[in-house]
Each structure stands twice: as C-alpha cells, then as structure tokens.
C-alpha cells in the first residue's frame, strides 16, 4: 500500500493562484451586476411591468368611452331591443286585456291614463313598476299592484283609501281618509253619515278621536261634529245641541265616565248646554239660561 505524504496532498502553487484569481473575478462581476441593478429603483421596475399590462386595457377603455359618448352603444342597444320586441309580438306577446280589481272610487279614465297601455301594445315593453308608481299618485289609491300575465294580460289590483271624516276648512268641506289625506271636495252628499271635524290640525288627530268614540257607540251616534280647540283638545257637538268638552289626555277614560253617567241618569237629555269632562272623574254641567231662571224663581203655590 502506497503512503500519502503531506507534500502529495498539497496542490501546486500555480493552481492555487489561478483558483484565487478566478474567484476574485467572479466576485467583481457579481458586484458590478448588483450595482447596475440597484441603479434602477425597484418601484420603477414594477411601474414598467404594470404599464406594459395596462396599456392595452387603457386603449380598449378609451375606445369604449368614445363609443359611449358618441351614442354608438345606445344606438346598438336600442336596435337590439326593438328587434327583440318585434320577435315577442310575432310570438303573440301583446296586450289584449287589462284587468282591474278593487276600483270603487277611482275614476276609470284616470286608471287607464296612469297605466298607459292599450290593446295591441307589446306586453314585454310595458313596465309594471312605472305604472304602479303612477297609480299611487292618484288621490284615492293607497297602494297598487301591477303585473304582466303572459301572454296578453295586464293585471292591476287597487287598495283604495277609506273615507274617515268630513273636514271643514275655510268654510268648505273636504272628504279625508285616516291619514288625513284629502280625497275629494265634490259630491259629498253620500258621506253625510261621517263625522265632521273642524280645525287646522283636526285631520292629524281625528283617527285617535274616532277610535276612542268607537268604544262608546251609544254616545258616538249622537255626535255630529268635533272641533279642535287650541291644537290641544276636542269639543264634541251632539245632535241635541249639547257640547261635550274633552280633556287633553285620557280621552277614552273621560268618554267612558260620561257614558256610564248617561246610562244611569240620562245626563245629556236634560236642559243643559254643555258637559265639561276636563276634571278627572267629575262632570261639570252647564245648564241653559231658561233652566237657571226656573231654579231662581220659586214655585207658585196652588
């Protein structure tokens, strides 16, 4: 077996020198390359890459903007829509019938004017939402439902407002609903059975008053009108000329108290002018002048 001595393991001197020189050259080249790379900021490199990607997108977008501004897209869309509508008509999708449910007070011509559709119109061109909005602008209509029922029917359901009272203002009467909306000022004769309310803010508070009166039906049927006093409370006017002065609060309790007293003593049928209910649990009765005089004159002896 041969022996390896220290001299054999060592590389020749010129070989080591060449290796060191090559390593030095490689290190120098890498340093120069890195320096060149650092001379261009990283953000600029990213910006260049993004720009190359965005350039075609911007070009297409600019063309789209031009087409939009010149109306080219709109014209193309209108032509396509018209062609499609023509196809639906050829397929039998045109209006032949308009069905309306729930119309009692609303004028028929006003309904048709709001719907804006006639026989033979393309049913797919009809817009139910626009028709619904126009119907709900009519005085008598609270809510409306409009549907296209293919192939040829437009269906309308109306929820009309309900008359609540006659509102006297500026010497004239107007019919109002529970929301205080004026329904009409004409042909009011058929609504004479409704309560007449008086006062600028009377429509706003009438629903509450009528609800409380509904709990005392025997008393309610004797009330012909109600006046709003100072924007705070009500005076009731009965058919026999008696005025009932209600409190600002707890109207229901005051009316119940009066109804109980009337059932026991027939207070309202006496020779009185007014009943004041503004004091809790107490009736203050104002008698007529004739009744007061009779009480002051002693009865003649027979």
TrEMBL record:
<dbReference type="GO" id="GO:0090529">
    <property type="term" value="P:cell septum assembly"/>
</dbReference>
<dbReference type="InterPro" id="IPR045335">
    <property type="entry name" value="FtsQ_C_sf"/>
</dbReference>
<keyword id="KW-0812">Transmembrane</keyword>
<protein>
    <recommendedName>
        <fullName>Cell division protein FtsQ</fullName>
    </recommendedName>
</protein>
<keyword id="KW-1003">Cell membrane</keyword>
<keyword id="KW-0997">Cell inner membrane</keyword>
<feature type="region of interest" description="Disordered">
    <location>
        <begin position="21"/>
        <end position="40"/>
    </location>
</feature>
<feature type="transmembrane region" description="Helical">
    <location>
        <begin position="47"/>
        <end position="68"/>
    </location>
</feature>
<dbReference type="Pfam" id="PF08478">
    <property type="entry name" value="POTRA_1"/>
</dbReference>
<keyword id="KW-0472">Membrane</keyword>
<comment type="similarity">
    <text>Belongs to the FtsQ/DivIB family. FtsQ subfamily.</text>
</comment>
<dbReference type="InterPro" id="IPR005548">
    <property type="entry name" value="Cell_div_FtsQ/DivIB_C"/>
</dbReference>
<dbReference type="InterPro" id="IPR034746">
    <property type="entry name" value="POTRA"/>
</dbReference>
<dbReference type="Pfam" id="PF03799">
    <property type="entry name" value="FtsQ_DivIB_C"/>
</dbReference>
<dbReference type="InterPro" id="IPR013685">
    <property type="entry name" value="POTRA_FtsQ_type"/>
</dbReference>
<dbReference type="GO" id="GO:0032153">
    <property type="term" value="C:cell division site"/>
</dbReference>
<dbReference type="GO" id="GO:0043093">
    <property type="term" value="P:FtsZ-dependent cytokinesis"/>
</dbReference>
<keyword id="KW-1133">Transmembrane helix</keyword>
<keyword id="KW-0132">Cell division</keyword>
<dbReference type="InterPro" id="IPR026579">
    <property type="entry name" value="FtsQ"/>
</dbReference>
<dbReference type="GO" id="GO:0005886">
    <property type="term" value="C:plasma membrane"/>
</dbReference>
<feature type="domain" description="POTRA">
    <location>
        <begin position="93"/>
        <end position="161"/>
    </location>
</feature>
<keyword id="KW-0131">Cell cycle</keyword>
<comment type="function">
    <text>Essential cell division protein.</text>
</comment>
<feature type="compositionally biased region" description="Basic and acidic residues">
    <location>
        <begin position="21"/>
        <end position="34"/>
    </location>
</feature>
């Amino acid at each position: 077996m041969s022996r390896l001595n220290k001299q054999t393991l060592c590389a020749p001197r010129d070989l080591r020198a060449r290796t060191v020189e090559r390593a030095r050259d490689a290190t120098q080249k890498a340093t120069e390359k890195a320096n060149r790379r650092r001379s261009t900021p990283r953000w600029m490199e990213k910006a260049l890459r993004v720009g190359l990607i965005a350039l075609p997108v911007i070009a297409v977008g600019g063309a789209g903007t031009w087409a939009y501004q010149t109306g080219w897209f709109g014209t193309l869309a209108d032509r396509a829509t018209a062609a499609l509508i023509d196809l639906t008509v050829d397929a039998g999708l045109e209006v032949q019938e308009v069905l309306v449910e729930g119309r009692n007070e609303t004028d028929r011509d006003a309904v048709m004017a709001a719907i804006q559709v006639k026989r033979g119109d393309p049913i797919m061109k009809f817009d139910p939402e626009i028709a619904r909005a126009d119907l709900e602008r009519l005085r008598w209509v609270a809510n409306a439902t409009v549907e296209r029922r293919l192939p040829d029917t437009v269906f309308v359901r109306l929820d009309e407002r309900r008359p609540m009272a006659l509102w006297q203002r500026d010497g004239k009467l107007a019919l109002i609903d529970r929301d205080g909306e004026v329904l009409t000022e004409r042909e009011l004769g058929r609504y004479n059975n409704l309560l007449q309310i008086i006062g600028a803010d009377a429509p706003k508070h009438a629903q509450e008053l009528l609800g409380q009166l509904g709990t005392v039906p025997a008393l309610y049927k004797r009330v012909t009108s109600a006046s709003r006093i100072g924007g705070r409370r009500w005076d009731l006017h009965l058919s026999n000329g008696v005025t009932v002065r209600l409190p600002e609060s707890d109207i229901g309790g005051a009316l119940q108290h009066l109804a109980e007293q009337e059932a026991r003593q027939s207070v309202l049928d006496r020779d009185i002018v007014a009943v004041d209910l503004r004091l809790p649990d107490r009736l203050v009765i104002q008698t007529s002048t004739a009744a007061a005089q009779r009480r002051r004159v002693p009865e003649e002896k027979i």
